[in-house]
Amino acid sequence: MAAAPTNQHDSDGPDPEKASSAAQIEPKTGATAVVDAATERRVVRKLDFRIVPLVSFLSGFGPGIPYLLSFFYLRHELGFRSGLFLAGIRPLATCFSGALAYGITSGHPDLPNWRLLFLVEGLPTILMAPVAYFFLPDTPQHARFLTPPEKAAATARGVRQVGDEPAARVGGLHWPDVAATLRDPKPWLTALMYFSCNVSYASLPVFRAPFFLSACLTVLTTWVADRTRQRGLVIIGLCLVASAGYVLLATCRGVAARYAGVFLAAAGVFPAIGNILPWVMNNQGTDSRRGAGMVMLNAIGQCGPLLGTNIFPARERPYYGRGQAVCAAFMFFTALLALALRALLRRENRALDRRYGTLDEQQQRARAAAAAAQSSQSSPKETEEEEAAAAVENYGPMFRYIL
């Protein structure tokens, strides 16, 4: 979690998602369900090997996959899984797309090359549609590959997430939450960050080695951000690396220096995108708000390529210095936006600490209440403290923003 002890908001601090893993709250009853940690780990492993590979075939639904994954993974697990998916559909796929296209069109087919490419690229997606419909579950409770004890553990994880069973999260939209998202500055900031990154990414030169590096760093940095709860700092660092790469492309004329610039740009721009998408999910406190945040992100962010592909006029060939400078400026602008959003999140975390107490203090109160309830056999206070440990990914006493 992004929450931290008093006066130390940049530290890891206690993690309410992990701290409540041994005893989960049953929805609406306050009763405690004991969940074996080994069973929970087995659930996560099965999700990793069944859900993530399956969604990797749904590239057309790519921007919505992090939202879908939020129904299966906790906040500190989501970024890495999103990174695996995003690295596969963008930079890793780009490594092989040119060679694949050449192989498909080099046999002198009867169809025009562009039609053949469309068929080869489109048919697998069409064939996967019924597979996804029948085999991709809406929630862990509908996952056929989970055993009953594993489904019970997955249900407890859902309670830890939102305070209710996973099945209750499907099939509805809370419009007041959507309106609240539109009034919230945080999704606007991430949408502008996505737009800025897409301006630069749309014009990035395609070379196999730089894009392979980009795929590896997308997976690595999303994992690091999950572990440290410092996604903003990761994004800032990546954007500065990408900006330096575009500066080299804008100012240098030597082949070696410009190729180094391509490596730096690729190493920064798409890993930054891979961290921006889960950052949206991390910092909205209901499913409706997370969904609305993703809609805003894509509605604004996907307009970036419209600009990015029109800043390289033919008269500036072969170096296109002005276009590369624009890309460098947008990546630096993204770093400033991430810094501003991180400062806003720190301020809101401090306000939550003042209102509810730090996570340390809340967990100490919960342990004291549990000990008192065991001795007195009366637990109204225990139920109140247990309920604070549930729904830690929705707004409440133990919700903190991930910085």
TrEMBL record:
Protein name: MFS transporter
Biased composition (Low complexity): 369-379
Chain intervals for the UniProt region annotation (Disordered): 1-27, 369-389
Segments of skewed composition (Basic and acidic residues): 9-18
Pfam families: MFS_1
Chief place where the protein resides: membrane
Residue intervals passing through the bilayer: 51-72, 84-104, 116-136, 206-225, 232-250, 256-280, 292-311, 323-345
Localization in the cell: Membrane
Source superkingdom: Eukaryota
UniProt membrane topology term: Multi-pass membrane protein
Transmembrane helix keyword on record: yes
Keywords noted in UniProt: Membrane, Transmembrane, Transmembrane helix, Transport
Organism: Apiospora aurea
